[in-house]
Design a protein that fits this description.
With 108 residues, this protein is an all-alpha fold. 83% of the residues lie in helices and 0% in strands. The longest helix has 24 residues, at 29-52. It starts with a helix and ends with a helix. The mean pLDDT is 92. InterPro entries: EmrE-like, Small_drug/metabolite_transptr, Small_multidrug_res.
Length: 108
């Protein structure tokens, strides 16, 4: 259950990052409110994941931020037309490798 909470928290991190971009510096009310509400939910799920099985802080935080980074990378390319260069894809691949290593190192 801790890993599911962490996965959802990471997905919500992507949602709040995207809605923050859409808020145009918090000048648009609806995306601004979505950002804040989803951010709180993401933090709460991260906290729950760490508390449920005493997941190590380093593992939980690295996986959470990694999911957010990769998700934001994909959303940036797909929805915002950001460039997909070989070097950016390599960097994202290294983040995914790091997430997987953290998961396996946790022994769950």
């Amino acid at each position: 259950m801790a890993w599911i909470s962490l996965l959802v928290a990471g997905i919500l991190e992507v949602v709040w990052a995207y809605s923050m971009k859409q808020s145009a510096g918090f000048t648009r009310p609806i995306p601004s409110v979505v950002t804040l509400v989803v951010m709180i939910a993401s933090f709460a799920l991260l906290a729950m994941a760490m508390a449920m099985r005493m997941m190590p802080l380093g593992t939980a935080y690295a996986v959470w931020t990694g999911i957010g980074a990769i998700g934001a990378f994909v959303v940036g390319i797909v929805a915002l037309g950001e460039p997909r260069t070989p070097l950016r894809v390599l960097a994202a691949s290294l983040i995914v490798a790091g997430i997987l290593l953290m998961k396996f190192a946790a022994g769950d």
